[in-house]
Amino acid sequence: MSEEARRAAKSTGRVDSGKALSEAAQAYIDAHSAEKFSLQALSDALFVNGSYLLRVFKARTGHTLLWYHNHVRCENAKALLLDGEKSISQAGEEAGFVSSAHFSHVFKKMTGVTPTEYRVSHRDEL
């Protein structure tokens, strides 16, 4: 095997392990999205160094772990908002946000609209 082929094989192994690590991190976040984000808890659960996990995840997905955590929370909140049975603050709390203000801030940053605007604009889906 040539040196170039060895490097390519080694590189492929890293990419595959990076993909597996990123997918494992996403699965963990999906399962624990309502909990406070903790890089330490996530890296401990995946048996990797936190700094390494941050680098690999960003390289594979183009996003930070915190961005992904907030994205999952906002997607969960969207479903709760469209359900119509919960108030805005209840939807935020159930999605894992500690305060209505923080929920509104993060939701608007992630979606471009406030939770109220989202609910009103999707009222026909209720």
Largest sheet entry? none
The total domain count is 2
Task: Name the poorly predicted regions.
Answer: 4-15
Structural class category: mainly alpha
Oligomeric state of the chains in view: single chain
Question: How would you describe what is shown here?
Answer:
With 126 residues, the chain is mainly alpha-helical. The protein has 2 domains: 3-64; 68-125, Homeodomain-like (Arc Repressor Mutant, subunit A, Orthogonal Bundle). It is built from 7 helices and no strands. The chain has helices at residues 3-31, 39-46, 50-61, 65-83, 88-95, 100-111, 115-121. Helix 1 (3-31) crosses helix 2 (39-46) and helix 4 (65-83) crosses helix 5. The longest helix is centred in the first third of the chain and has 29 residues, at 3-31. It is elongated. The termini are far apart. The relative contact order is 0.10.
